[in-house]
Amino acid sequence: MKKLLLATAASALMVGAASAEDAKIGIILGFTGPLETITPNMAASAELAIKEVDASGKFLGGGKVTSERADSTCVDAAAATAAAERLVTASKVNAIMGADCSGVTGSVLKTVAMPNGVGMISPSATSPGLSSPDDGGMFFRTAPSDARQGEVIADVLSERGVKSIAISYTNNDYGKGLSDSIAAAFAAKGGTVTANTSHEDGKADYSAEVATLAAAGGEVLVVAGYVDQGGKGVIQASLDSGAFSKFYLPDGMYGDSLIAAIGEGMNGSFGDIPGTDSEGAGKFAELAKAAGFDPTSSYTGESYDAAALILLAMEAAKSTNSKDWTTKVMDVANAPGEKIYPGELGKALEMIAAGQDVDYVGATAVEMVGNGESAGNYREYTITDGKFVTDKFR
Question: How far apart are CA 279 and CA 124, in angstroms?
């Protein structure tokens, strides 16, 4: 009898082992390029969720979860697709958390992810062009579209009494989409857009671009660029020439490196970044600080949420195959179900395995709309005494 019991137990263990399924998540972000100062915190956030799931021991019958980083560069589509191809073909990742910038995200999606049947959730690609349903059901994002951000920016400017603006945008999908959205929303509120012109990243001198903007005039210069690249150059040239003294800074321009580089000239400028003062944001902040990185840095909460949604969707699908888990993202992201916050991913896995519904709220009050993108919450701020000071949430 004892031998029979031991044999039965061994058999049960073998069945459990056979049902366990491991997963590898590719994290592709711009570790070099115009966002290189913010992407390390984004990656750390995604890895925080991955480690939380792995440590729980509850993923797909005890499967292990690992991750691997790759560099999107943010701006070089060829480099980004080559990096993604290595993740998919050599490293055999089951999903991609990323990419970050809109242009490279679209290239990775169309050139690598869709042809290879690998699902993606981006934490920060915001171009309205990515709202298109033509993605084979392979693409989601925890960041809101810039169609929404344009409306928020118009609201902030109008409420602060600004009547006229000039816009300088980085010459890519992100910059063009956001600038058009801002211009349309601000004009709809009765504001005047004196100029809406592009700048190229990587230049040493932006005096010509600033001269054109200065000739058009405007109370505020909206800089829809990148914090470590041309956007910073446009602001410095504006201050040096006296063309503009107050700037509006959308999401791509948020970062301590900007204040460090320019100094007191940034005081009084203002802007927005996706964010919320929700219960989940507070829980995420505690986890991030304990892990040793800044939870207020750009798109950190969105990165945690993107990785968490991938893994919860895999659990719901009982599969790491993208054709399966991508069909479950909207289910785990939205009601009905018990609300799930950062630090509760093990609990969520347990509930899903038991056939119970979860509503993943996460760090950013996740609510997926449309074809799978965040409905959008924003933090409005003003730079005061060399620091980003929160004014309100929208």
Answer: 21
